[in-house]
Amino acid sequence: MTAASDASARPAPGAGPILRVAGLTGRITGQTVIEDVSFEVPATGVTALLGRNGVGKTSTIRSILGLIERTGSVELGGIRIDAMPTHRIVQFGVGYVPEDREVFAGLTVAENLRLAERDAAPRREFIARLFPDLVARRDQRAGTLSGGQQQMVSLARALVNENRLLLVDEPTKGLAPRIVDEVAAALGEAARTVPILLVEQNLHVIRALADRVVVLSGGRVVFAGAASELLDDEERVQRLLGVHDASEAA
Amino acid sequence: MNRRTLALVAGGVALVVALALLPLLALDVPGVLPGPTYTPGTLQLLAFAMLIAALALSYRMMFGLAGLLSFGHALFFAAGAYGLGMILELLAPAEWPSELVFLVAILATLVFGLVLAATVGALALRVTGISFAMVTLAFAQAGSVLIRRNAATTGGDEGLPLDITHVPDGLVGVLNTRNLYWMALGILVAVYLVVLWVERSRAGHVAEAVRENELRVRVIGLRPYDVKLLVFIVASVLAAVAGMGYLLLQSGAAPRVATADFTLTLLVIVVLGGVGARWGAIVGGIVYTLLDQRLTALAGSDAIAALPDVLRVPLSEPLFILGTLFVLVVLFLPGGIAGIPKRIATGTRQDPVEPKEATDA
Amino acid sequence: MDTVVLLLITGLGLGALYFLVASGLSLIYGLMGVLNFAHGSFLTISAFLGWEVGRRVSDGTWTGLALSAVVGIVVGAVVAALTELLIIRRLYERHIEQALVTVGIALASVALFEGIWGTDPIYTERPAWLTETTEILGARIPNDRFLLIACAGLVLGGIVLFLRRTRYGLIIRAGVENRHMVTALGIDVRRSFTLVFAIGGAAAGLGGVLASVYYGYVSAHLGSVLLIFAFIVTVIGGLGSLTGAAIASVLVAVLQQFANYYLGGTGDLVVVVALAAVLLVRPRGLMGKAA
Fold first, then answer.
1. Which residues form the ABC transporter domain (chain A) (predicted)?
2. How many CA atoms within 13 Å lie on the side-chain side of C192?
3. Fewest CB within 10 A of the end CB: N or C in chain A?
4. Residue C289 falls within a domain, yes or no?
5. Mutating which of A104, A155, A157 best tests the C interface, going by the most C Cβ atoms within 10 A?
């Protein structure tokens, strides 16, 4: 995986986007869930994919991975990946942290991680340093972990390999505030080496991590630009995301 | 009622009238029918084909409309056949007028079928998808075992002969095959109308919606369970009606009709005909019965006997040919026979009706 | 007492047979969502070919039987893997059609077996020891029961080891839980589909040879009969659970034996009643994952 290790180094400013999505339309059992979605993810930093509930953020992520039926073009590092089956796309250097964690409940923590290892030299030490809690619980069944610990497993499964892009779907959903900070810190750490496309509801986390934002509405992109441009405009945040800025209230 | 519906109804009525007139004509279709249409042998075969078509129609309602993949439909067909047979035998010594006894026996069989369907359905519908299929299979198997084991009342492996004491004279004997043919046609038409009525009813629409998306139906405040149970019961009772017709037509019931293989045959018929259309089940039933009969005749023919073993053995097994045909239809012809005109018209693949399984959500 | 012991051990023996069929069914269903009606045919073809080879080489001896077993295992694995590769795979993710196709294969293959080997059972020769009995706690137990139990025990142990110790085993266990997530980790889960079919086919193939020992004959319907009980076992045990299948196999078979003896041959009925009871109390089966 030489390509992947190249990508782990920060590319020079001005390098092209790592992910280019154009005209992506996704369907679940024949129903269109996203339509003609186009956006780009730069080769560095965190790009947040935002929008109200049910607007198609998860479907966009799943369409990129080929987990749902889709049409349109998806380029990773300039190479079309939309005709590939899911496992090839992932092998091509895409890490995926799904909504609701989706850890294998009947497998131990160690087995969950072992299953995810693709590289010849998986980054076990890195994972152990990032999530010391998991080392202690390596023989525990993932189903018996707390929500926060399961999220650590799910993140670790993606971070154990060198990736060219991470797709992270609502990593802080349903977690206690203290755990949210831990997850955010881990993502921040990961973002130093790999670009991330992040779906997130928590504005506090978005403010802390996101460099750029893409906002979906009605299954289409309605805003794409620098994070600050959107987040500093309270009225716009309210209108596009339907949420009050939690960090202001706090 | 628009013009198209009117034309369809008129066409349907004309078809039924034409079928009703067949016993009075002397049509000969060599290779398809064993003899001219007025002969008892041909009428018997056609009547049997129509009963199977009626049964397939009831099965399609469950599988195609409500998405319930049952492997136990044979149980209810057998319940109709054996139920009526056993009740007629039981009532043979009765002193009432024969017509009354016959009617009572039919009504009692219907009630029996209804109770059985409600019980099995209520239990089996507690699970969905493939588990449902297995559970219905298990119940049907129990029925099949009961029939084989209790030889004293069911005739066991020998089958149950029809006790004709109280059966109207017009429905007995080779000379009256014509009447039995009309009876079978009547049953087919009746089953068709009931199925049509259910599909057009509110319950039918809900059942269809349940097949597509159970969760959504639940969200709008309906209990999918109730609707599925209703469809299950109606389809099962219709199967029992076809079963009664079968008993009268064949002058007896064979244990084969209670087996899982018989249900599998039904499944083959419905898929062969096309799950998407009502008439697919009818065409499937008739094509299958005729094919089965002709292939059996072919298997015994000299032409086949002269072939080398490699060809002779498979070709002399009708079920081998039908099974292979079925696999090919599922692989390459989704939509079955009923889907062919549409495929030709549009030149595209028609998506088969694909019931979503709750188990794989 | 001796009757109870006899019924218990005979039940275990029959349960062993059920398990050899149900283990594959359960794994295949658990991993791929395919209800495999062709599984009985894997068993039957293995029984026939095992018998054909065994009797030609050395009929009625241990060598012959061992050879039959090997042939049965290989044939079962190969036929099952080919079925998956050539037919099931074309209908990837279309579960109802996959089940339908296996129905067609089952119907066609049984008819073909009838065409080749006839409709009547063919009685087979067995090593002398298997036709004798051993006395345990006053009960005279037919020796073939021990062979069945030992073989099923080995198969269970082997599959468990495979699932626990190998990477493919890990993939299969994960896939039974959530196969989409396995693909999303960059693993081509379809390769393990073929493997699971092969393993299930091998177990069924051994089951076929052992069934011919247990019943004393081979017939075109050997598989169909066992398949229905294996389905019941799989549902009771919980779809996708190997342990569930093992426990349910023994429970069902022992229950069947006792009911046949004490309740006037009602074994099959009692099994169905047990199935209904399990579904009422626990629709996902004894060890099944939550639906």
1. 19-243
2. 25
3. C
4. no
5. A104
